[in-house]
Amino acid sequence: MANQNSRHGQSTPASRTFVSDTLVVVNFKTYEEAHGASAVELARIMEGLETDARLVAAVSPLDLAQVVQAAPNLEVWCQHMDPIGFGSNTGWINPETAIQWGASGTLINHAEHKVSLEHVAMLLDQVPEGFQVCACAADTDEARALAALVPTYVAVEPPELIGGDVSVTSADPGVVSSTAEAVKETNDDVGVLCGAGVKTGADVAMAVELGTSGVLLASGVTKSSDQAAALTNLVSLL
Ligand code: G3P
């Protein structure tokens, strides 16, 4: 059973409604502080945060069902999906199963899990209308190529800045603004995110200033000694 979120049109389980504004996607990766019981704990913190921002947890498929169950009002995405169906596909991630467990979107082509353009195109063909797909790009050229496939979002993340202490919005604001322009030129329906090193509310505000709809981040939250405070800071200027 799925309904449609009126502002973003994503397919979601009928009982789940999401607030919507600037997008803050927290990628749990395989950080120990965001896996298993810790994934559930972090998802509950995200769900409990009072903010107009649209928070999304991008979780391991191993944690998906538990996270959705523990934080039913939080938007939960996968970190990767494969364009396959039911059958003999050992070790691959079937979008339909993830959707059954409550995933309302996915990252694809993350710098740490690259795939071909064809993989992205086939996935986009396969997922239901409104399912959120955020295709990650290393630079403006890759972002342009991905935008032509019309995912929901393209997120630009220079690989060398991922996991670092300097936000892409300070280290390379040009790649953020030029990607925002390139994606809009390619298809105005595709949203733009940026990521790598994003840690503070000022970074998020600058991302919006540079023309994006929000951010994709990981270590700024997952590795923080106070994840609730890190999240509060991230949304503090929105
Ligand atoms: O997917 C988000 C990511 O690649 C950026 O990671 O740790 O630099 O926020 P981080």
Q: What are the SSEs and their pairings?
A:
Layout: E1 2-4, E2 11-13, E3 23-27, H1 37-48, E4 54-59, H2 64-70, E5 75-78, H3 95-100, E6 105-108, H4 117-126, E7 132-137, H5 140-147, E8 153-156, H6 168-171, H7 173-186, E9 191-195, H8 201-209, E10 214-217, H9 219-222, H10 227-234
Helix pairs in contact: 5-7
SN-glycerol-3-phosphate binds at residues 27, 110-111, 157, 162-163, 195-198, 216-220.
Write up this protein:
The protein is globular, with a radius of gyration of 16 Å. The N terminus is likely disordered. Helix 5 packs parallel to helix 7. Strands 3-4-5-6-7-8-9-10 form an eight-stranded parallel barrel, surrounded by five helices. Strands 1-2 form a two-stranded antiparallel sheet. It has one domain: Alpha-Beta Barrel (TIM Barrel), CATH 3.20.20. It is 34% helix and 18% strand. By secondary structure, it is α/β, with parallel strands linked by helices. The protein binds SN-glycerol-3-phosphate. The site of SN-glycerol-3-phosphate (G3P) has 15 residues, from strand 10 and helix 9.
Any key phrases for this structure?
disordered N terminus, TIM Barrel, alpha/beta, binds SN-glycerol-3-phosphate, 238 residues, two-stranded antiparallel ribbon
Q: Evaluate the radius of gyration.
A: 16 Å
- Based on DSSP secondary structure assignment, what is the total number of beta strands? 10
| Cα-to-Cα separation, first versus last residue | 33 Å
Give unreliable regions as ranges.
1-20
Average pLDDT taken over every residue: 93
Bound molecules: SN-glycerol-3-phosphate
Order of helices and strands: EEEHEHEHEHEHEHHEHEHH
Helix content: 25-40%
What count of domains describes the coordinates?
1
Q: Helix- and strand-based class?
A: alpha/beta
DSSP strand content: 15-25%
